Structure prediction request, 160 residues.
Amino acid sequence: MTRIALYPGSFDPPTRGHEDLIRRSLALCDHLIVAVAINSSKQPLFTVEERLDLLRRTVGVDGRVTFETFDGLLVDFARARGATMVVRGLRAVSDFDYEFQMALMNRQLNQNVETVFLVPAVDLTYLSSSLVREVARYGGDVSSIVHPDVEAALVRRFAR
Ligand code: PNS
Prediction:
């Protein structure tokens, strides 16, 4: 049986932390779908198409990983793709409340999907897309925490 996992998120933009989680997830599944949420309640810096492109560049070619967007409930997307696992990263205690609530709500909605929490590499635990956006907005150096193509996209976006 093929174990299909979903790694959902906003990825605005993708960071080295996301990349780390993707590589760790591959030890637990046969196929990983990195799923960019089309979330109307957030005002994103990059469009979903731009985020998909930046994710592909960050991860590179790996036959076990595909990239998609999804709208609506995560559990419905999981059902549609035959995924039985949702991967989320836990960086600090501050992530826990939200992640715990989301995992329990998703289980309530779909008993067949299990949420698995992975801990990123210790030197990436402080990282978040919102911090990357903030540092890049004010011209800070993000070269060690995002892929060079993401860095270039940030520079272009904030040069306007
Ligand atoms: O990277 P993020 O912003 O923390 O990701 C949050 C995300 C996209 C995984 C979450 O908001 C989500 O699953 N959205 C889809 C809508 C949904 O299913 N909401 C109910 C979750 S309990």
